[in-house]
Please model this.
Amino acid sequence: MTDAPLPARRAGAGEEFRALPEEDRLERLRGYSSELPPVPEHLAGNVDMYERVAECQSPVFINVEVTDGVVAMHATAPPEAPTTRGFASILVQGLTGLTADEVLAIPGDYPQTIGLTKSVSPLRIAGMTGMLVRAQRQVAEKR
Amino acid sequence: MTVEHDNSSAKFAEYAAPGRLVTTEWLAANLDAPGLVVVESDEDVLLYETGHIPGAVKVDWHTELNDPVVRDYVDGKGFAELLSRKGISRDDTVVIYGDKNNWWAAYALWVFSLFGHEDVRLVDGGRDKWIAEGREITTEKTVRPATEYPVVERDDSVLRAYKDDVLAFIGQGPLIDVRSPEEYSGERTHMPAYPDESSLRGGHIPTAKSVPWSRAVAEDGGFKTRAELEEIYQDGAGLKAGDDVIAYCRIGERSSLTWFVLQHLLGFENVRNYDGSWTEWGSAVRVPIVTGTEPGSL
Model:
């Protein structure tokens, strides 16, 4: 165990946003939005494999796989919901490759700590919290 | 300088204040009109950056029109600073459009109206209609020279209702609840697919009639005709000419759209938006609440 509250990779997005001046953070979130990876072939087109995140302001579907204790998260969100895509992308990039234990150890208030609350508003960041909670629940069920 | 009204639409001509709406066609033809500023106001904070109407500036309800600390809107000084920075003058014609059937556009229009900005209009059908029609959008950053918008104190007395106003209004005049039927009855405390914003109780304000906001919207995303709207709000919900009305929803965004319909399209002269809405009422101590599908009484 280390003193770090989050695994190093998870801390990444927060450090990255907080290092930016407030006015540049939305642009970086937009970058995340365009970096949301396509879902793998074995999941694409299979909506049943996805769970709709009800807390999110726009339709977003997530699926988490746990293979040998390692997490891979996948998500889809429409292009007309770039903020939701950005949130999903931060989680997909951050959670994928972590162990199940590491994902479950991420604090529930993580979305409020990454330096985006002011730029996007507390109401909107709640959508990311909903996504994280769903992902963690899927990890707990599938580990 | 006031830009001429959009007189092209037979549908608009029936409304009480036809000048409060513009068609996408009219806007496309008037983008360069002197004295006209186009404003985009969205639910999604990044949507404007992915492409907007050429020359449009972004005004975000969440992060720019709200006070960052108190649950309230910016004050006169804050509004003057914001509009000066956006390059909007007090006598400019402001035309607002947005995503999600213009919820946040209508909310922004309502806030502009609290400050008495005189000529502020909505694009009928909003962002979705503009894009569906294949009209031009751009990611080019809009640069407008800063203006010196005057400091005008916000006047909440005419268009805005506080919780105590609503409490005193129960039984005195019609309340319109524009949320989904499930929120009205108390089955759920928040909008389907939206974050739970922590109302401690479910239900509605006693005597409030349920008229979900979406009933005012036509299939093309624009507003329904005046005759259709009268059928919904007058024949259906029982509003009568001359009534004072208060509309509410969850945080005031959907009810801003209904406020716009009642005030500007149907011509009710005293319509207030209760922006505290259910997130305040549903958590306030000892205010009366009715559950179920009937309006109930005090």
In short: Chain B has eleven helices and nine strands. The beta strands of chain B are 21-22, 36-40, 57-58, 93-97, 120-123, 175-177, 209-210, 244-248, 270-274. Chain B touches chain A at residues 43-47, 49-50, 60, 62-63, 66, 68, 99, 192-197, 251 (CB under 8 Å).
